[in-house]
Each structure stands twice: as structure tokens, then as C-alpha cells.
Amino acid sequence: TTISRAIRSERGELEGVLLITIESAHFMQLFQGTRHSATDAISVLRTDGAIFVRMPELEIGRRFPRAEVFSHAVTAQSGTYQANGAIDGIPRLISFETIDGFPLVVVVTRSLEEVLAPWWRFTGFVAGSLAIALVLFGAASRYAFRSAAQAEALQFELETQAHTDSLTGLANRRHFMDLAEMELSRSLRYGSPIAVMM
Fold first, then answer.
1. What are 3-20's pLDDT values in tens digits?
2. Which helix (DSSP H) or strand (DSSP E) does residue 97 occupy?
3. Residues β-bridged to residue 105
4. How many angstroms separate the CA atoms of 95 and 7, rounded?
5. pLDDT in tens, 59-83
6. Burial letters 152-163, b for 16+ CB under 10 A, else e
7. What angle do CA 128, 111, 129 make, to 5 degrees?
8. Residues 6+ apart with CB under 8 A from 73
9. Which of 60, 67, 104, 173 could join 99 in a cystine, given CB atoms 3.0 to 4.6 angstroms apart?
10. Do the beta carbons of residue 61 and residue 51 sit within 8 Å?
11. Predicted TM-score of the model (pTM)
């Protein structure tokens, strides 16, 4: 890649031209060290859509003038957005930055699937943990309800045994006295007659 810059005098007359040639291998080594996955793509594009340099490699000079990044680069110097890749059509997270003083835009992309993979793993872990917690809560609730029902049945059985004579199956003296007091109170409260039959 050759970059040229005119050297002018204070009056604006051309005094010379400065040429700098940069091997694309330099960019490739630089970009290779920053790529983290196979879906990463790093590109330097001219503002006319031509590829200046790209990793993974693509024909230098190939043009993508309708790439969405240029509409974003017109309104902002840098930014991040989601769109389908201009080259492969895969949904991607795209970050860009324009280079001051040069008609170049640096674009870094990664597939959306790969960007969201850690989030999906975390979501799966949380959902699995919640499912296990709900199953354990359900089992504990079922055990608690069963224990409460057994305790209630045992309580009823104990009350029945406490009020019943085991030989005859009739109410015992204590239960008779409790019922008698209750009926006597009712009779007194309502002024109604009461009878006892033996």
C-alpha cells in the first residue's frame, strides 16, 4: 500500500512528494495478534468502499460502496451497531472508527452468535438453576403438606383417644363434663330448658 503526500512551500508551490509504502504483511501481523476467533474480521476501508487491507485476507481494492458502515461513519467518528456483514451476510456486531486526516475507516466485526454465546451459556445456567430450585421447592412443599396432613390426622386421633373410653367406645367422663359445661352455658345464655338422660 502506497501513501503519498504533497510537500508544499509556504506560498503553496509544490516542492516534492513524499511516498511511503507499507507491506500488507505488516497489517496482517498486526491484525492476526488482535483476532480472537475465526469469525472476527478486521478491515481498513477507504471511504469510497475499497478494501485497503483486511484480515482474513480479501482482494485489496475490491469495493463495497453500499456497506452500511459508511452511512454510520458519515454521522459519527466511531460507533457500534448490529447488521448483516457486507461480505458474508452473517448477523454481526460491527464497530468502526474513522481515521482523522485520511479517507479511511477501521471496521472490526464479530458474528452476533459468538458475541452472544457467553450470554446464552449464562442464561442456560440460570434457567437450569431455577428449574432445579423449583423442583426442590416443589418436593419440599409436597413433603411439608404431607407432614402437615399426617400431623393433623395424628392430632385428630389423639383427641379421639383422649375423649373416648377404649372399652365401650363412648365418651369418657372428661369429655362428658366438657360437653355438659358447654350445653349448660348455652341453656343459660338462651334461657332454654335442659335435660340429662342416663
1. 788 889 999 899 999 888
2. strand 91-99
3. 45, 98
4. 34
5. 666 777 677 787 787 778 888 888 8
6. eeeeeeeeeeee
7. 5
8. 47, 96, 98, 105
9. 104
10. yes
11. 0.51
